[in-house]
């Protein structure tokens, strides 16, 4: 299904680091067979497609988290609470116009994008000693824009496999990068001695995020979502909304987002490839007793709900309410004292 409309074309001239990635992609795309890469992710690198909506074109895909979750309550079967606010990422496509120099690219307009078959999936990673990095959302709306290129090694290839149902999260991980990975300046020297460099996929401050620490099995809810167009900041924008995610464990975590197209095939690859990925901001999952309550819904959450996506909308903050309840017998004697914590997602009334 194609969406119609008018949107201005944008021409980009990438910087030096991007030139290096382009050159690497060109020099290796013709010889990936040397790397035993039947199943490989080409995350955020330009990809030449041989079939699908981008057949015959070289396309670079880009994911960016614009709203991160701040907190969640540990999942329980009788009381399931999704992460709040719901994580949201945008997806953009760029066509490389000059294959030889790779100096110019054009952002595809929304009427050029077929959303059927596009999927985004998430992985869960624990973040150790990261409370100082949590912070509050930027601005009143809680939006944040995260570009993974600043902290993620763009030449780190993550293999991916698909079965009849799509992405198989349990795939083995190998470092197929033709060059040694680089890390952000200031990383403690002990990190490289503690972890295999190929296993470090991201960092939060000085805290490395390790591929082998992935806890995706601890996620509950819709871990694969389809995109939708919305009008965001004056532009027709393609977004993925993870409105139904909960976590089984307490702690501090972050999400990794990965996008692929079921109906497009990259040149030289039998299986579908990951076209883009990014890492989100950190959030904390609390126990029921420690859960502090929920803030009012962000402006972005309210905007998305107007496009028909089911979300919990709160006009006011939901603070933790504690009751000291004395239960009396018919004769008037008190049996004892108990505490109750109550949260209400359905009424727009602030609770004390």
UniProtKB/TrEMBL annotation:
Residues 169-182 have a biased composition (Polar residues). Residues 56-314 form the Velvet domain. InterPro entries: Velvet (IPR021740), Velvet_dom (IPR037525), Velvet_dom_sf (IPR038491). Its main location: nucleus. GO terms for cellular component: nucleus. It comes from the Eukaryota. Pfam families: Velvet. This is Velvet factor-domain-containing protein. Residues 134-189, 317-352 are annotated as: Disordered. Keywords: Nucleus, Transcription, Transcription regulation. Signal peptide: none annotated. The keyword Transcription regulation applies. The keyword Acetylation does not apply. It is found in: Nucleus. PROSITE patterns: VELVET.
């Amino acid at each position: 299904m194609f969406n119609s409309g008018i949107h201005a074309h944008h021409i980009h001239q990438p910087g030096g680091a991007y030139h290096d990635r382009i050159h690497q992609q060109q020099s290796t795309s013709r010889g990936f067979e040397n790397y035993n890469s039947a199943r490989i992710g080409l995350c955020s690198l330009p990809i030449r497609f041989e079939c699908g909506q981008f057949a015959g074109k070289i396309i670079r895909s880009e994911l960016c988290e614009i709203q991160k979750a701040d907190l969640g309550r540990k999942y329980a079967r009788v009381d399931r609470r999704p992460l709040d606010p719901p994580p949201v990422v945008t997806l953009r496509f760029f066509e490389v116009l000059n294959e030889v120099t790779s100096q110019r690219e054009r952002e595809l307009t929304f009427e050029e994008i077929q959303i059927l078959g596009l999927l985004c999936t998430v992985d869960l990673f624990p973040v150790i000693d990261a409370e100082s990095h949590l912070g509050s959302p930027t601005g009143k709306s809680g939006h944040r824009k995260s570009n993974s290129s600043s902290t993620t090694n763009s030449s780190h290839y993550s293999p991916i496999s698909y079965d009849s149902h799509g992405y198989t999260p349990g795939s083995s991980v190998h470092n197929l990068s033709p060059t040694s990975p680089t890390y952000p300046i200031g990383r403690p020297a002990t990190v490289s001695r503690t972890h295999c460099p190929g296993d470090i996929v991201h960092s939060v401050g000085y805290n490395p995020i390790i591929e082998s620490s992935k806890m995706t099995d601890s996620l509950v809810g819709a871990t694969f979502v389809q995109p939708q167009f919305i009008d965001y900041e004056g532009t027709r924008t393609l977004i993925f909304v993870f409105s139904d995610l909960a976590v089984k464990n307490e702690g501090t975590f972050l999400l990794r987002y990965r996008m692929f197209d079921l109906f497009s095939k990259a040149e030289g690859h039998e299986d579908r490839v990951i076209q883009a990925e990014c890492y989100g901001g950190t959030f904390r999952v609390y126990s029921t007793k420690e859960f502090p309550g929920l803030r009012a819904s962000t402006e972005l959450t309210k905007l998305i709900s107007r496009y028909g996506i089911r979300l919990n909308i709160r006009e006011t903050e939901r603070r933790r309410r504690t009751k000291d309840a004395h239960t009396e017998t018919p004769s008037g004697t008190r049996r004892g004292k108990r505490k109750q914590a109550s949260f209400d997602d359905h009424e727009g009334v602030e609770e004390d």
